[in-house]
Amino acid sequence: MSLPSVEEIRALHEKYAPTGEVLDLVRTHCEIVWSVAEHLVERASLQAHLDLELVRAGCLLHDIGVYALCTADGHVDLENYIRHGVLGYEILSNEGYPERLCRICSCHTGVGITKHDVLAQRLPLPPCDFVAETAEERLVMYADKFHSKTSPPKFLSAPAYARYIGRFGDEKVDAFNALREEFGEPDVAALATHYGHALE
Fold it and tell me: Which of 29, 64, 79, 107 has the fewest CB atoms within 10 Å, counting from its CB?
């Protein structure tokens, strides 16, 4: 199966979202992540080196697994939230989409989750690496770091995210800084103004 169209992506969100409120939250976040990725691609002149259709579909579907953690009334199981990537992988795989798209779901969390992370932190995940390998996977993962689905949703500057990820060790900050070096930084202030969200 080929990559889904924008209309097919919208239908997938509507199929799996338990409520309209969760649908709006997750789908809007995914659209914002695509806007961030587009901005990064334009600024860094990366078009020739990326499969932009894969990046678009990956951004727009990376959080589809969140729906699998929701109750019928839209409450999210935050205790198991770290599983949303592998759940998204399962959803897209069961829908018949290609591995290169499914993987974007499973490897976008944080700046990558290693087998060591899973075992040392006793995470509710299979004991293996969930690490972005391709440029497309890294770009979606990185773009996702600049927006949060908190209540209310907000944008994060690069220094704000670096402070957040620093709680998990210096190696995670180093991984984030490597992504900053690879892709540059988006104009999150302009995006925050456009979407009417706060900026941290």
Answer: 79
